[in-house]
Amino acid sequence: MESEESPLELAKRRMVEAEERVKAQAARVAETARRGGDTTQDKATLAVFQTTLRFMLEDLIREQERAAGKQGGPTQPTPTRHIP
Question: In whole angstroms, what is the distance from residue 77 CA to residue 84 CA?
C-alpha cells in the first residue's frame, strides 16, 4: 500500500520540481540567446516559473513551521535557496 505524502513532503517535492523547471527554462533562454534568437517568450516563461518557485518556497516554509509546531520543538531553520 502506498503511503500518502505529508503536506511537508509534498511541499518539498514540489519545490524540487519547480527548481528543475526554472533551471531548464534558464538553459533554454541561454541557448536561444546563444543562437541569436528572440528570447522574449522564453524570458517571460522563466519569470512565471521563478514567481511560482517563490510561492512554493513560501509554502515550504509554512509547512516546515507547521511540522515544527506539531512536534512542540523549536522551528526548523528557514531553507535558503537562491532564486534567480
Answer: 21
